[in-house]
Amino acid sequence: MLTAHTRALIALLGTVTLAGCATSATHVSRSDAVAERRESLRFDNEGRDRVDVYLVGEKRAWRIGRLEPGQARWLRVPRDIPTSDMSRVQLVVLANAQATVTPLLNPRAVMTLRQPVYVLSGQRWAFTDGQLNGLRTVLLPQGAHRGDASRRSDDLRRRR
């Protein structure tokens, strides 16, 4: 027969085990976070209008996000882009427009040139005053710090 002390100990061990499982399941490593960012693009809506953001391939368009004025988010690049489109997609932005499956047909569409998905991924894009601007986002390897990157660029300037 189990005593009250033994039952309490078993209950405590069970609770600790479950808490440990829940904690490890939600843990995301830094390398996973960097990989996730490479499959995303950063978009800042610096304008005064709500915008819809699309990736457009040869045969299909994917709406990847809607941002309110002043909002900034990482938008996930769809995984179901066909191989034939991986090297030829455009980022398209529509301001104050209804969602559509054909964003390129809208005369107010603002777009990038066609480029490979990997070029768009990991970049930062800003929509301001009706213009779409691409800014390169630096994705540092695991263990590196922003100070390391700036020190390397300072060293290169000194060598010249």
What would your notes on this structure say?
This protein has 160 residues and is α+β, with helices and mostly antiparallel strands. Helix content is 31%, strand content 26%. Strand 2 and strand 3 (61-67) form a beta hairpin. The chain starts with a helix and ends with a helix. Residues 30-37 and 140-160 have low confidence and may be disordered.
Provide key terms for this protein.
8 strands; four-stranded mixed beta sheet; about 160 residues; disordered C terminus; 4 helices; four-stranded antiparallel beta sheet; single chain
Mean pLDDT: 76
Largest sheet: 4 strands, mixed
Radius of gyration: 23 Å
The shape, in one word, is elongated
Order of helices and strands: HHEEEEEEHEEH
How does the helix and strand content classify structurally? alpha+beta
Termini distance?
82 Å
Roughly how much helix do the residues carry, as a percent range? Answer: 25-40%
Strand coverage percent: 25-35%
Count every beta strand, where a strand is a DSSP E run of 2 or more residues: 8
**Residue runs with pLDDT of under 50 for 5 or more positions:** 30-37, 140-160
Strand order of the largest sheet: 4-1-7-8
Oligomer: single chain
Number of continuous helical runs: 4
